[in-house]
Design a protein that fits this description.
The chain is α/β, with parallel strands linked by helices. Helix content is 24%, strand content 20%. The chain has one domain. A hairpin with a 6-residue loop joins strand 3 and strand 4.
């Protein structure tokens, strides 16, 4: 699945979406970047972000708390898109607190 296909699929879902992109360590430096947002990020149907690790991702998820969160792994064959499941989130309550 290419970036446009993933964008189309996420855009077709109800509600806002947050796509966290996790590249492999051997991701080619000159490869196309999947993270590309509209100027008005807060009102975009799909927001794209690079994986920053569980703690910083949690801050992003809190900010976009009304969105469904996805982990996108473009370096896998085929591209993997799955619900985001952070170890940090697993240890937190539903409202993001211990």
């Amino acid at each position: 699945m290419m970036c446009a296909a993933v964008q189309s699929k996420l855009s077709s879902l109800s509600g806002g979406q947050l796509a966290i992109v996790r590249y492999r360590p051997d991701h080619p430096v000159l490869a196309a970047d999947w993270v590309d947002n509209n100027a008005d990020i807060d009102h975009s149907k799909v927001v794209w972000a690079r994986d920053m690790g569980p703690v910083q991702n949690q801050e992003l998820i809190r900010y976009f708390n009304n969105r469904q969160v996805w982990l996108v792994q473009p370096d896998e064959a085929p591209v993997r898109v799955e619900p985001y499941n952070s170890p940090t989130l697993n240890s937190l309550g539903a409202n993001g607190t211990l």
